[in-house]
Amino acid sequence: MDNVLEFLKKEPAKFISFLKENGIKKFYFVTDEKSKTLVASNELLKPIADFINADKRDYLKHEGMFFEVCEKYDTLYGAFVHKTNRGQAAGGLRYWKYFTFEDFLRDGLRLSAGMTRKNSLAGLWWGGGKGIILHNPGVDFYDKEIRKYLYQDYGRFVTTLQGCYITAEDVGSNTEDMANVHLTTRFVTCIPPEVGGSGNPSEPTSRGVISGMEAALNFTGSDFMDKTVVVQGMGNVGAPVIKYLFEKGVKKVIAGDINQNTIDKVVKSLPGKNLETRLTKIGDNSILLEECDVVAPCATGAILKPEIIENLKAKIICGAANNQLEDSDRDDVLIQKRGIIYVPDFLTNRMGIVNCANEQYGYVNNDPLFEQHLNKEWEYSVYQTTLRVLNASKETGVPPAKKAIELADELAEVNHPIFGHRGQLIINTLVEKKWHLS
Ligand code: NAD
């Protein structure tokens, strides 16, 4: 292959073969602190660094990206470190299939920058990062031994990064996988409770959604009383959201799921409540268009798109689902034009990361460091942050998601009060010691 850039558009397996043929086992791209341009560990890969450097959408001066070829299963590990001023880059490890190497790169870039924003907006002393294990279609991921190997080996890879990236559970991986990662690195959270971890974050996540919703209702001079709320998705987060809504005094909940058993379970747990349910099909988002005051998307992402937004009856959108806007620039504006209040998902669904990020600091009853996210007083609580974002959006005319990003980006510049911008020092160390050759 004459031009290494051609690999960006091809399936990742082709790039892996190229790396192997050229004896490249590990490589990185890091942003040079002085010139603010991206440099590659290996001359052969420089065109890819230049390509990323020229990108204005997904490359946001990420401090570093590190990669290793897993020879045993012909796959690739990635660790994307966006920004570490507030602390080591923290974010989940995704096991995912990508059609091209460019898709793999872009997903890591976007997700790690998203974690910087989620963490800083939450007032956490963590930077933003993301891990990826590339799915190789030729390998049976459900084979227990293979899976164990991949996660343990990924943990070893994380160890070599000396703590600039702290991994965690994400789409495609679970707490058992994190226990395997934990066997080979200390730089991991979301491990099972049996080994000191924090357990399932869904209930706290649902409380975050309720806090954001309450702030949005208060912002409009209202509260939960006599409201009708639509909840899409009645799973781990949706079910407790419904429970808390009734505790808060709503008149009615209309909730939908694609799974009848899930619906039955929730209905059984809430006898005598004014809960109407809908069994829907994947891709059917009509429940969002019901007559109601608030809609809470708690199933999948990309459901807020023009044809839905134009027909929404609700005045507020506030839910847990990740990446609710199909197109983050276009749809935020469309929602605002319709006079509907949108509480950004990365603001309300922070409790997943809050729940596990600090797990190594131990546990106390009614942990104040945890509960402050859910009270109405702390300046970085979900409630206060939602009000701040909505007020700033009203004053400036900038849509809420964009405003929340501006606020998050400001906070992300603040250095950790004890450790300073140590993640960058770690990256400098990796470069100096020629990590890619070790
Ligand atoms: P889950 O899988 O437990 O629940 C999702 C539910 O939605 C399932 O019951 C599923 O059957 C249903 N569903 C899927 N597609 C649907 C559709 N088109 N219409 C209606 N129902 C549908 O997941 P969860 O943990 O409850 O998470 C819900 C959302 O919140 C996800 O987008 C997740 O990424 C996000 N999130 C969750 C957490 C957490 O702590 N669990 C944290 C942050 C973000």
Notes on the structure:
By secondary structure, the protein is of the alpha/beta class. The protein has helices spanning 12-21, 46-54, 101-121, 144-160, 175-182, 202-219, 238-248, 260-269, 306-309, 328-337, 345-348, 351-357, 368-371, 382-396, 400-412, 422-432, and strands at residues 26-31, 38-40, 64-70, 75-83, 89-90, 93-96, 127-134, 165-166, 228-232, 252-257, 275-279, 294-297, 316-317, 341-342. The strands form two sheets. Strands 1, 2, 3, 4, 5, 6, 7 and 8 form an eight-stranded mixed beta sheet that branches. Helix 10 links the parallel strand 13 and strand 14. The longest helix is centred in the N-terminal third of the chain and has 21 residues, at 101-121. Residues 201-202, 205, 232-238, 256-259, 262, 280, 282, 298-301, 320-322, 349, 352 line the site of nicotinamide-adenine-dinucleotide.
Write the layout of secondary structure elements.
Blueprint: H1 12-21, E1 26-31, E2 38-40, H2 46-54, E3 64-70, E4 75-83, E5 89-90, E6 93-96, H3 101-121, E7 127-134, H4 144-160, E8 165-166, H5 175-182, H6 202-219, E9 228-232, H7 238-248, E10 252-257, H8 260-269, E11 275-279, E12 294-297, H9 306-309, E13 316-317, H10 328-337, E14 341-342, H11 345-348, H12 351-357, H13 368-371, H14 382-396, H15 400-412, H16 422-432
Parallel strand pairs: 5-7, 5-8, 6-7, 9-10, 9-12, 10-11, 12-13, 13-14
Antiparallel strand pairs: 1-2, 1-3, 3-4, 4-7
Helix pairs in contact: 3-15, 4-5, 6-7, 6-14, 14-15
